Each structure stands twice: as structure tokens, then as C-alpha cells.
UniProtKB/TrEMBL annotation:
Residue ranges of every copy of the GmrSD restriction endonucleases C-terminal domain listed in the record: 652-771
Annotated ranges, domain GmrSD restriction endonucleases N-terminal: 17-342
The entry's keywords: Endonuclease, Hydrolase, Nuclease
Alphabetized GO MF terms: endonuclease activity
Domain of life of the organism encoding this protein: Bacteria
Keyword Hydrolase: yes
Protein name: DUF262 domain-containing HNH endonuclease family protein
Protein's UniProt keywords contain Manganese: no
One Pfam match: GmrSD_C
Organism taxonomic ancestry: Bacteria, Bacillati, Actinomycetota, Actinomycetes, Micromonosporales
Database matches in InterPro entries: GmrSD_C, GmrSD_N
Length: 830
């Protein structure tokens, strides 16, 4: 007979009292649950929803405050409970799969109510039971005692014997242990410690002693989440005191007047499950701000919390079924991330009793450490999506979508392949951990943190590696993370010594190859040109050179499929092959001339500013002014003018992109720059200059602008002042201010040495020089040795991507790409 749904799980709607006061109940938080993390806004919403429901109850006796679904495993055999004193475990253990934040917050609320009602009962009745002749006071006292008993049983259970008979209703795995033996009981987690500490005190004081004013404080060695938990306790306590004293709270509704409770029998029955004593109702109509009124308001609120806050409690038959339900439900209004639904599978595979302290636990903590940076909600969802997309690319070469169901399915299916093999499972989880570490510490370190290659020698983070990482990140070239991750992961887990050194060198080779490939590819097309597809093909093993898949696993088996491998030299050769292949789906850049032709024709400034800065820095590095061609630069000696460095990349004070011919047409500039809107945004018209000098550079004519360039690129401040003073010109900034911005920058000095006009023809000549210099800087990174001739395929591809304006077709502004003739496109210079 087929299994029925009711045999797999049961779901019951229960009031908070019905759930927590169940005799023998213990709620248990497994080790993969997050620490307590509710913020003030969530607690305010909980209180406001409760107050709103209480107010509505006066009009509708069916009013409830529903707080969603709690998913649990009814752990009949206590297999999830670690550590454990088996004979002393509560008779009914519900392991909480989802809903621990709400349950913890509700228990904090109950502790606050219990404590405040005890204090105000003491004030109201002057340390003694009320006068038996005062029926109203007697009834209030009875209601108070009854609600305190109900609150108490919801917070903890007291066993009939033992030196430590107090059992908190909610405890956490590994931090806590139920036991009646004082030497074995353990309540160290923030929530269990708070409940236990209060419960022991309250139980000892009873109703005949003056109650303590419970004010918990964070312990010095407390677990994560205790600070938030205590803050929420303080906020709830303060709110309850104000509500009971009828002091308004801007964010919350008020409590209903006691007169409404006194006059509405249905309201009384809904709150207390019985009618109030007539004498008490009469008393409530008269009460205002005296202690009896404050006490009754707290009792009324507590009664609503216990009897009218409802949850749907799902009890799964076992872990498999509970986790299936867990994955399917959106119980909090915020979808669970694909990692959050994946984590229980890891715990299941490792076995809950073995999870704590395992390698798998360490790997998952590394992932959680990264994701904990992000607030729950869209930021966390986005971070998780991007992390898993990168992981899927590196793990199997799969292009994983951002859709939550797809990501959940991918993580489930790929992990299930390995869950029965300890070694394969460990490798899978280690790779996921490496992904989070690399993304969180190397690609995008936390604010004010320094980039690190965690697990590698500090020498691995060379200046060039820093430069490449900063550039790729600023370019938002996230597709590059997966291939870089593969080399990083192999280096981290390589044996110490020669093997580690080789793997570190491979990482260096790989990041240079990826960076150079990206620059050459992106600089020769308007968009990304499906560069992502090129990397995915390499990861999946669809290669031109016979290189095996770079992804850690093959997605499909086959007789001709190469095994995955991490080889930097092979990657460099594969990327070079893809760049130079003239087939339409590849790079189509087979030689230097075609690279120069394509890149100089495009408005790189509007296409990508990080790409433009990188090309210019590469071109400027260790150059000097070209005396034979004023306005241009050429290669100089090593160290003469270094700027292609990580410091150069971050130094936007001196290296901000500036247009030589202004972006908007103005006097003093040749009209050819403005015959087509993209011309001024080409590389030949761009320069890196101190951003602070923009006010003075602005839209000045060329004759004045070149003076400033010469001054800003001067070898000394005195030389800069001499140039400025000798020009006879007045600028927006003082000579002193401009001189302070100067630094020996040959590319600026060279511009100042050009005597003739700045025109589109010279702009194109300059672009060709800059691109060739950049090529010389990057070619070895990709193993290129380009010839300097143009092929038809490259020219036609450039023609397809760069369509000039009509007047340019007629010859105006002809440059490195050249002009269109009856026979097609030709280049006008080399």
C-alpha cells in the first residue's frame, strides 16, 4: 500500500501555550542552525502584530496572531541529541529545522512577562495574599498566579526529583545538555543560559519572596548571538513596561483599555478560556494607573501571547522528510537561500552526532563566515546566488542560473553524487569552502580589509597579482573567479615544498593569462563579446588545444573525454588560441595590427573605464618622451616611470581618465572631433591626469591645455612652477596648488611638447603607439608573438563593429582604422 502523507509528516496549528507547555517537551536546535540574530525591527513587528491581534480580539473573538510554520523532526530515538544523558532526555524531543529565531524571541518575551508580572504582583499585593474580603483583588491575584504558572511551564519544565530539576524548553546542540545531575547538566548557549538562569532564580523565589529584577548581561566567553539576544530582551522589557503604564510607543499600537476587557465577556473567554470574576470586572472599570491596573495589563497581554499567538507545527517522520519540507516552505517571508537548504544535507551525510568538529563542519563555517557579512534578505540572496554560480562553474563547468529552485536542485544533485563516499564528499565541500574563502578574502575582501590569498605564503600575493585582481574586480569580470579559483584551490592544498611552489607559480601564470586575454578581447569589441562563454567552454573542456576540463569534475563521461586538470601553461595556450582564432565565434585578433585597428576604432571610454585605465597604465609604464615624435612616448629603462602597479591602479589622484579634446564641442578644437559623437571617447584622445586639476584643465583650448600637461608631468615642483609662470596664463587653481599635483609623468610631458594642433589624425597615431606599448607589456602574459599585418577577417570584423558617421566615410577624421573605399575597408597606417 502506498505511503500516505500523514505517515510522512503531520501539521497542527497550536497556540504558544499548547506547543510549549506540552508535558515532557524539549525543543532542540541542531548544530547547523544560525546563532540568534533577530534585529530590533523584527522584535518590534512581533510586538506590534501581537498588540494588533489583541486589539482585534475585542471585536472578533476569532482573532489570532499567526506567526507561520515551525518545521521539526520528532526525534523518537534521540539520534540528533548531542551530547546526551540518555535516561534523562525529555520524553518528546522536537529538533527544530526551521523557526528557531521566532521560538527564541517568543521565549525571551515569555521570560520578560514572567519576571515583570512577578515584580508587579509583589507591588500590587504588598508582599501578601490579598484580603479575602476584597473579591476583586482576590480574583486578580488568582488570575496572576494562574498566568505565572502557565508562563513558567512554557519557559521550563521542572522534574520531580534531582539536584538540577529545571529543564529549559529550548537548548542547542553541543553547547547544552539536559540532565538532572548538577555535574552533567550544561546550558551554555545564549538562549538556554538565559532561560535556565532566570528559571532557577524564579523557581527558588516562588511567590512568597521579593522577586529579583532579572537583567541578563553578556558573558565574556559567550557564544555568537548572545549580544543580540540580550539587546532584544532589554528592548522587549522596556516596551512591556511602557505598555503596562499606558505610555505611548511610536512604533507600536496601545494595549486595549481595561474597561473594554471588563465589559466584553467574549473577549474574556477568548483570552483566558473563562469569564472573569464579576468583582474583578467591576474593579477593572475603575482602575487607572495604580499597581493593580499595571499588573492586569501585563496579565492580559501575557494571556494573549500564550493563548492567541498561533504557529503551525510540522513534525516530520525523519530527517529526510523534514528536510524535504524545509526546502519547500517559505516560512518567514524571506526565501531560504540555496545554501541554507543545502546545509542540512551536509549534516545528514556526516551524521548529526559526528558533524560538530568534523572537516565538513569547518568547511561549512567558512562559507557561513563569508555569507554572514550580508543582511538577511535580498543582499544575502544575491551574495549566495553569485557564490553558487561561481562554485558551479568551477566544480562542473555548469552555467548555473540565478533562479533559487535551480540552485537548490544543483546543490542537491551534485552533492548526492558524493554523499556516500567520505573522500569525494570531503573534496566537494572543501571546494565549496575554497570558493567562499577566495571570493570573500581575495576577490572582494570585507570593507577596510586587505586582499589575501588565505593558505598561501604572503609572497604569492605579488604586486602584479594585486594589480590583476583589482582590475578584474573593478571590471566586474566575475566569470574570471572560477578559473582563478581552480588554481588557488590546487595551490592551497598542494604539499609543502616544490609542489606548493609550482602551484603558486601556476596561479601567477594563470591570473596574468586571464587578465591579458580579457584586456585584448574586451578592447576589440563594443560589448563583452560573449567572453563568459569562452571561459565556460574552457571550464567544461570544450577546448581548441586539447586541454582537459578546468572544472574540478567532468559533467559527463565519454571515451574521448580528457580528465580535468589544472595546468597554467595549457590555459595560457588555450586562451591565446581563442583570441587569435578568426572563426566568428572566437576572438578574431590574429595579429598586432588587427588588435590596434579594432581597439583604436572603439570609444573605449564609454565601453569600459576600468579597461581604459588598465590599457593606459600598461602603455605608460617605464616610458619616456619620444623626442623624434613630439606628443608621443616610447619605452624607456626599467624603473624610469613605473605606474603599471597595484599602487598605480589605486592612485586615482594622479591617474584619472581625462579627455584631451573636450567631450563637448568648444572653441579652440578642430571640428573633426565632433563630426561623430564617439570620436572623443577613443583611446587616442584619452589621458591619465590628476583628477584635482580638472577644474583648471576643463574645456580650455589645446594651446593652453598642453601647458598644464607639461606642468603636471614635470620632473620637479620648481619646474612645474616655471612652466606655469612662464606661460602667462591664469588658471582656476593657483600655481602652488597645481605644482603640488605635479609628478614626473612622461605621458603628460610628451603632450606638452607637441607644438602643432591636436587633431583626429594625430589622435589615431597616438592610439596606435599606446596600444603597441600596452601589447608589449602584456604579450608575454598570454604567450603572444604577433606579426604586424592585417588580415581580411580582422578588418571586416572591425568594420561590422565600428560604423562611422557619414562625414567620416567621406574622409573627415580618417585615422588608424582608415576609410571606406569601393573595395572595402583599408587601414591608413600600420
Amino acid at each position: 500500500m502506498p505511503t500516505q502523507a500523514k505517515e510522512i509528516f503531520e501539521a497542527q496549528s497550536k497556540s504558544l501555550r499548547e506547543l510549549l507547555s506540552d508535558n515532557g517537551l524539549g525543543l532542540y536546535l541542531p548544530p547547523y542552525q544560525r546563532p540568534y540574530g533577530w534585529g530590533k525591527d523584527k522584535v518590534e513587528k512581533l510586538l506590534d502584530d501581537t498588540l494588533h491581534g489583541l486589539k482585534n480580539l475585542g471585536d472578533s473573538p476569532d482573532s489570532f496572531t499567526f506567526l507561520g510554520t515551525v518545521i521539526t523532526i520528532h526525534d523518537v530515538n534521540h539520534v540528533t541529541v548531542q551530547p546526551i544523558v540518555k535516561p534523562e532526555v525529555p520524553s518528546k524531543v522536537l529538533t527544530v529545522i526551521d523557526g528557531q529565531q521566532r521560538l527564541s524571541s517568543l521565549l525571551i518575551l515569555l521570560v520578560c512577562l514572567h519576571n515583570l508580572i512577578r515584580q508587579h504582583s509583589w507591588k500590587a499585593f504588598k508582599e501578601n495574599e490579598p484580603n479575602h474580603e476584597d473579591n476583586g483583588a482576590v480574583a486578580l491575584y488568582a488570575e496572576t498566579v494562574n498566568i505565572l504558572q502557565t508562563l513558567g511551564t512554557a519557559i521550563y519544565e521542572k522534574k520531580n526529583f534531582g539536584a538540577a530539576p529545571i529543564y529549559p524548553r529550548l537548548i542547542r546542540a553541543f553547547d547544552d545538555q539536559w540532565s538532572k545531575d548538577v555535574n552533567l547538566k550544561q546550558y551554555e548557549s545564549p538562549i538556554a543560559n538565559l532561560i535556565y538562569t532566570y528559571s532557577v532564580t524564579a523557581d527558588a523565589e516562588g511567590l512568597t519572596s521579593k522577586p529579583s529584577d532579572f537583567r541578563p548581561k553578556a558573558r565574556s566567553a559567550a557564544g555568537e548571538g548572545e549580544s543580540d539576544l540580550i539587546k532584544r530582551f532589554v528592548e522587549i522589557r522596556a516596551a512591556l513596561i511602557k505598555l503596562a503604564q499606558t505610555k505611548p510607543i511610536e512604533e507600536l499600537e496601545d494595549l486595549p483599555p481595561l474597561s473594554v476587557l471588563a465589559d466584553n465577556i467574549e473577549f474574556q473567554r477568548a483570552l483566558f478560556n473563562h469569564e472573569l470574576d464579576t468583582a474583578l470586572s467591576v474593579r477593572l472599570r475603575e482602575l487607572k494607573d495604580e499597581p493593580h491596573a499595571v499588573l492586569m495589563r501585563l496579565v492580559m497581554f501575557a494571556a494573549y501571547v500564550l493563548n492567541r499567538i498561533a504557529l503551525t507545527v510540522v513534525q516530520g517522520k525523519d530527517e529526510d522528510y523534514a528536510f524535504t519540507i524545509f526546502e519547500s516552505l517559505n516560512t518567514t517571508g524571506e526565501p531560504l537561500t540555496a545554501f541554507e537548504t543545502f546545509l542540512p544535507r551536509v549534516v545528514m551525510a556526516e551524521k548529526i552526532r559526528d558533524y560538530q568538529g568534523s572537516d565538513a563542519h569547518d568547511h561549512m563555517r567558512a562559507v557561513q563566515k563569508y555569507l554572514n557579512r550580508f543582511d538577511v534578505g535580498e543582499k544575502l540572496q544575491n551574495a549566495t546566488r553569485e557564490l553558487l554560480i561561481t562554485f558551479a562553474s568551477a566544480e562542473t563547468g555548469k552555467k548555473l542560473s540565478k533562479r533559487l529552485p535551480d540552485q537548490r536542485t544543483y546543490m542537491k544533485d551534485t552533492f548526492d553524487r558524493h554523499k556516500d563516499s567520505e573522500g569525494n564528499r570531503a573534496a566537494y565541500l572543501r571546494h565549496l569552502s575554497d570558493t567562499a574563502t577566495f571570493v570573500g578574502m581575495t576577490w572582494e575582501p570585507a570593507k577596510d580589509a586587505t586582499r589575501q590569498l588565505v593558505g598561501l605564503p604572503t609572497s604569492a600575493m605579488t604586486d602584479t597579482v594585486k594589480l590583476c585582481l583589482a582590475f578584474l574586480k573593478d571590471l566586474n569580470h566575475t566569470i574570471a573567479i572560477a578559473p582563478l579559483l581552480r588554481f588557488y584551490s590546487e595551490a592551497v592544498h598542494a604539499d609543502e615544498g616544490e609542489e606548493r611552489d609550482k602551484r603558486v607559480a601556476d596561479f601567477d601564470t594563470a591570473i596574468k593569462a586571464i587578465t591579458a586575454f580579457t584586456v585584448f578581447w574586451r578592447a576589440t569589441r563594443r560589448g563583452t563579446g560573449n567572453i563568459d562563454g569562452q571561459y565556460r567552454a574552457v571550464l567544461a573542456g570544450d577546448t581548441l588545444t586539447g586541454m582537459g576540463p578546468l572544472a574540478r569534475q567532468r559533467t559527463a563521461a565519454g571515451p574521448n573525454r580528457l580528465e580535468p586538470g589544472v595546468d597554467a601553461v595549457a590555459l595560457r595556450a588555450e586562451l591565446a588560441a581563442r583570441l587569435t582564432n578568426t572563426d566568428s565565434k572566437y576572438g578574431g585578433v590574429p595579429n598586432l595590427a588587427s588588435f590596434v585597428a579594432a581597439a583604436s576604432a572603439l570609444p573605449l571610454y564609454t565601453i569600459s573605464r576600468p579597461l581604459t585605465r588598465f590599457l593606459l597604465l600598461a602603455a605608460y609604464h617605464d616610458t619616456v618622451e619620444d623626442a623624434d615624435r613630439p606628443g608621443l612616448i616610447k619605452q624607456g629603462k626599467v624603473g624610469v616611470s613605473p605606474c603599471f602597479t597595484s599602487d598605480g591602479w589605486s592612485d586615482e589622484t594622479h591617474f584619472t581618465i581625462e579627455h584631451i579634446a573636450p567631450q563637448q564641442a568648444t572653441s579652440g578644437w578642430e571640428e573633426g572631433f565632433y563630426s561623430e559623437k564617439e570620436i572623443v571617447h577613443k583611446l587616442g584622445n584619452l589621458v591619465l591626469a590628476p583628477g584635482a586639476a580638472n577644474a583648471s584643465l576643463s574645456s580650455r583650448p589645446w594651446t593652453e591645455k598642453k601647458v598644464l600637461y607639461a606642468a603636471l608631468g614635470a620632473t620637479t615642483a620648481d619646474e612645474s612652477k616655471a612652466i606655469l609662470n612662464g606661460s602667462g596664463l591664469t588658471f582656476a587653481q593657483s600655481t602652488e596648488e597645481l605644482a603640488k599635483l605635479s609628478r614626473y609623468m612622461p605621458h603628460l610631458r610628451a603632450l606638452g611638447q607637441r607644438e602643432t594642433e591636436w587633431d583626429p589624425t594625430f589622435m589615431d597615431e597616438r592610439a596606435a603607439v599606446l596600444l603597441r606599448l600596452a601589447y608589449l607589456r602584456l604579450k608575454d602574459w598570454l604567450g603572444l608573438e604577433w606579426s604586424d599585418s592585417v588580415t581580411d577577417s580582422a578588418v571586416h570584423r572591425v568594420a561590422d563593429e565600428f560604423e562611422p558617421a557619414e562625414d567620416e566615410l567621406n574622409g573627415t577624421g580618417a585615422g588608424i582604422v582608415g576609410q571606406r573605399t569601393a573595395d572595402g575597408w583599408v587601414t591608413s597606417r600600420g
